[in-house]
């Protein structure tokens, strides 16, 4: 989608630190990491979030937990623990409206999911 930051990253029109890529998904380092491991996993095809899935993005998104576990293992966080989450809409604090999952790990992440 024209003008979408993460579409541009998926198309490699702007630089990012990609750690994983396959036919339908890309994972790259968050530009403002909140933990030693902070990656974003996105479908290459555009949709705004989990409330806007299309058949194409739903099929890609369904693979994200398995791919996240693979990446967590590669990043050395599988045994220590990690978190996978997606912000959807204004109350969640979503700032980029292209579906993405945060993969966080590498330190104790705390138990609070909201404040
Ligand atoms: P959210 O607030 O859930 O929409 O998450 C958006 C995330 O995208 C934030 O954690 C930002 O730090 C991250 N972000 C924004 N721009 C970039 C970029 N160019 N490369 C990598 N991560 C980015
Ligand atoms: Zn997009």
Structure overview:
With 115 residues, the protein is α+β, with helices and mostly antiparallel strands. It has a single domain, classed as 2-Layer Sandwich (HIT family, subunit A), CATH 3.30.428. The protein contains three helices and five strands, in the order H-E-E-E-H-H-E-E. A hairpin with a 3-residue loop joins strand 1 (18-21) and strand 2. The longest helix is centred in the middle third of the chain and has 11 residues, at 64-74. The protein is globular and about 35 Å long. Bound molecules: adenosine monophosphate and zinc ion. Residues 1, 4, 6-7, 46, 98 line the site of zinc ion (ZN).
Largest sheet: 5 strands, antiparallel
Rg, alpha carbons:
14 Å
Q: Tell me, what is the CATH class?
A: Alpha Beta
DSSP strand content? 15-25%
Q: Which residues form runs of ≥5 with pLDDT under 50?
A: none
What is the CATH superfamily classification?
Answer: HIT-like
Beginning-to-end CA distance, first to last residue:
33 Å
Q: Compute the average pLDDT.
A: 96
CATH architecture: 2-Layer Sandwich
By CATH, the topology is: HIT family, subunit A
Q: From the helix content, strand content and strand pairing, which structural class follows? A: alpha+beta
